[in-house]
Amino acid sequence: MTQELFRKDGYLQQCEATVTDLVDKAFVVDQTVFYPMGGGQPGDSGHAVRENGQQIRIQDTQKDREHDRILHIVEEGEELPALGESLSLHIDWERRYRLMRMHSCLHMLCAVIPAPVTGGSIRDGSGRLDFDLPAPPSREDLEEKLNQAIAESHPMSYIWITDREMQDRPELVKTLSVRPPSGAGTVRLVQFGEADLQACGGTHVANSGEIGKVRVESIKNKGKQNRRITVELA
Prior knowledge:
Blueprint: E1 3-4, E2 14-23, E3 26-29, E4 31-32, E5 46-49, E6 55-64, E7 69-74, E8 86-91, H1 93-112, E9 117-123, E10 126-132, H2 139-151, E11 156-162, H3 163-168, E12 186-192, E13 196-199, E14 214-221, E15 226-233
Parallel strand pairs: 1-4
Antiparallel strand pairs: 2-3, 2-8, 3-7, 5-6, 5-8, 6-7, 9-10, 10-15, 11-12, 12-13, 14-15
Helix pairs in contact: 1-2
């Protein structure tokens, strides 16, 4: 089992770790700051520094749910570390921070559109959510409301509840196609002040004001009541 340091502090950029397993073109460590792909958020990239100073480029991070561990997938041609070796892990912070801003932006989008979310994804610099809406909102009005909510600087905080409490409060899961991490006894809720509260395992900024100005790139009809809203960092 890999200790997931990013769950409590998304601003950690590096950590020391020990290699506990090797799997094909990936390695596993006892603890990590690398976020694995999940909940619509891409996995982190970055590098590891070996004891001899050599760097190993990490192109992606994924969760091996069967064995409850995180796979750090190295770039083609890179040498894997040795089992038991000590490493210093470093994420590509600028990319991660953009992903944090966008993931937080999508939470604020949920705050201004009170409708069920049927799907979504996050990319570097942009993201989208699909809403169960009978009619699409005005792009200009939505962009204004979203930027206003972001600029209100809602502080982000975590709340931990039990799996049982989560089952009794289904309204805390806003994305119907993605389930929050559970099974460990507790579920993490992400709260942005008075604006939004929902279960989420992703990484987020400490205050909505850090998101900055955004653009509503498009609103598309993807079904009778399915509106796909794509947002970009300005």
